[in-house]
Design goal:
Blueprint: E1 6-11, H1 17-27, E2 34-38, H2 44-54, H3 63-87, E3 91-95, H4 98-108, H5 115-126, E4 133-138, H6 141-148, H7 163-176, E5 184-188, H8 193-204
Length: about 210
Amino acid sequence: MARGKFIVFEGGTGSGKDTLIELLKKKLASRTDVVYTHVPGGTPFGEKIRELILSPEARDVHPRTELLLFLAAHTELIEKIIKPALAEGKLVVSNRFVLSTVAYQMYGRQQLMDFGVAREALNYITHGIVPDLCLYLDAPPDIAIARAGKRPETPHRFIEEELAFHERVREGYKKHLSEFARKTVTIDTSGAVDAAWKKTEEVLQSFL
């Protein structure tokens, strides 16, 4: 059986990942071979890690501790969900993957001194699992965070980070876009959803 395809939506907080993935779900509603997942989370244990990471109690956690929690969540997701689904020839669509860890935990948290070790750890846990396509959703952080702040749910601690944090995250994404997927396409999500979705559909055409 041919290996399935792996598509990742990446981008900063409020960049529109949830919105575009929901539109993709509607477009592919008739297909039974699509697995949707997200980082952190996606497995029972991963969801517990997600709750811990996003909790107010984690505000003062050491950056390395935060990194290790994300690595643990990644490992569970890759081994329990992504690898088996790809082996079965399914299409896997993930809201974030390892590039987010680079952008947030290395750049956002200003831990570039640990980047070499983090990269080795990411290589170790991914075991050659590389997205076939990464859609990087890009919007200026001030616009994206304002958008995220309007969500009905209670804001999590990453939304509440200072603007400089989100600027660093964006820098991290842009510096490493070509390193964590076979193909990466940047989509401007600073404007209307319809325009971003139209571009997304065009890019996905050859993968679906």
